[in-house]
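Morning!

This is the sequence you dropped in the shared folder:
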Amino acid sequence: MRYSYIINPIAGQRDNLEKNIKSIEEHFCGSDDEYEIYVTEYPKHAKIIANEIAKSGEKARICAVGGDGTLNEVVSGIVGYDNVEVGVYPDGSGNDFIKMFGERKDFRDVGYIRSAKTHEVDLIGINDDYCINIFSLGLDADIASDIPRFRRLIPALGGKFAYTMSIVKNLFKKLGKRIRIDIDGEKMELNCLLMAVANGKIYGGGYCAAPEADVDDGLLDVITVKNIPKFKIASVISKYKKGEHIVKSAVADKFKGIVEYRKARNVLIESKEKIIINLDGESMFADSVNVRVIPKKIKFLIPHVCGC
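The structure's back. Tokens below.
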């Protein structure tokens, strides 16, 4: 078995790189197991590295050292290769996908991938890209897209400042995206404040968009929040963050008329203008998005301390 660690040096705390490399080297010290460490140098580099490992044909376990974006890149690089399994050493600001299986601390052992159990999980196909956790558009996607700009503008003030400034900026804009949606053949048009198509439950560092999502049921949870007056947004979003909008597979009474919820296999989204979409924390523009579930496509590595 080949063990490969792909480290994103700018995920989370930037001074963690040397510490993470040292931890990996110490773990394998005295072992005959083959291991290798890669450090990404540019966007999508993790995808390229993972794809090269997968194409070798060797049985391999890859550990994405970083956040959900790093995991997304690694997963995207191994799609279609049965010889590769993927795990995560959580070192990013979010790491929301692993919350489907356990707590962050459960995955904080660089060596767990050597003895980990595997769990086949669904994948979300989005046009020619992939997403393992949650796809979104609207207010939350716009906020996520602007955070890196504020971090570059005043890096000393950190991520929380950038997040706050991005919220302020976007709340001053005209809100709502006018989109057409086809959910398994059911068509609708709406002015959408935000929309999430989910494989996992949580995204954005703690927003429980899809409290009843399951990563291996062959279905996507589709949540849309209609555009509402700005003075109501804080109240609605605070309950949305806690997952209170969905109760027993239905929209909670206090959210009826605001939230729509369905399980589906295919979702087509169209807009007259290009809008920001977000895939596991990574932003891009599109005016037509074909979202589909790809059942049990990825072999995900889970520590034995997790009960899954």
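Headline: Helices lie at 17-28, 45-55, 68-78, 139-153, 158-171, 230-242.

More detail when I'm at my desk.
O.
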